[in-house]
Amino acid sequence: MYFASNIKFLRKRRGRTQDDVASALQLKRSTLSGYENGVAQPGIEVLVAFSGYFSISVDTLIKVDICALSEYQLGELERGYDAYIRGSNLRVLTTTVTPDNRENIELVSEKAKAGYATGYADPEFIGELPLFSLPFLSHNRKYRTFQLKGDSMLPIPDKSWVTGEFVHDWREIKSGNAYIILTINDGIVFKIAENNIESRGILILYSLNPLYEPYEVHINEVKEIWKFVNYISDELPEPVLPQKQLMQTVASMKYDLDQLKHRIGRDIEDATEL
């Protein structure tokens, strides 16, 4: 239970005195002091009052050690991305920060993917991942980079490094956008998503490569979602032929096929005459 330390931390973080908070919640200052020191336990009405005052859910005030969150996570919490209100993964997202409290970008290589599927919430595992930064990305958002494997997302080349922005509220996933998704059964996948969470509680996942069939994943199987930002590769994607050049190519192939048919027909006639 973190209620006592949380309300004290939030009060000080917002620059409020005990008199300020007690007055706003119609409490005695001594009562508030008792709550903050853990010598008094609030009733449900008081919990609801604190929840409304700090704009944080009762569950979060009680169950989440807010003091242990990074500056980034605190900022997201204060902007309304509460784990128990909006479907966020705030309470399980584990990150690393620089000495000046800026979020790192952790690298999850192909070899580390299997471990990530079970260690994504383990501070020790995340802390051992390689780190880097991209100066053109926002310092106010959380990013992580995963190594792509396979050809399901061609023309993005195999073994590309795909960077994603952490998605707090899964209901805001935009259909048609690409996401890196950690699921219970399939591990890390990189797909185009169709959002059916509100209506059916599922995501439909599509590959860029049309050879792969789309499939459904229930949202209860999802652990993390990262919105595609960019990718890094030492290979160029396969070129896409311009429409005019494509038409010329098709016309040339048709001409060659007609010539082949004509030649075969002539050979058959010669063989018949013999």
Write the SSE topology.
Blueprint: H1 3-13, H2 18-24, H3 29-37, H4 44-54, H5 58-63, H6 71-78, H7 83-86, E1 105-108, H8 113-119, H9 123-127, E2 131-132, E3 143-147, E4 161-166, E5 178-183, E6 187-196, H10 197-200, E7 202-206, E8 215-218, E9 222-232, H11 243-273
Parallel strand pairs: 1-3
Antiparallel strand pairs: 1-2, 3-4, 4-9, 5-6, 5-9, 6-7, 7-8
Helix pairs in contact: 2-3
Q: Brief overview, please?
A:
Helices cover 38% and strands 19% of the residues. The protein is α+β, with helices and mostly antiparallel strands and 274 residues long.
Your description of this structure?
The protein is α+β, with helices and mostly antiparallel strands and 274 residues long. It has 3 domains: 3-68, 434 Repressor (Amino-terminal Domain), CATH 1.10.260; 133-232, Ribbon (Umud Fragment, subunit A); 241-274. It has 11 helices and 9 strands. A 9-stranded mixed beta sheet has the order 2-1-3-4-9-5-6-7-8. Helix 2 crosses helix 3 (29-37). The longest helix is centred in the C-terminal third of the chain and has 31 residues, at 243-273. The chain is elongated. The protein starts with a helix and ends with a helix. The model is unreliable at 85-92 (pLDDT under 50).
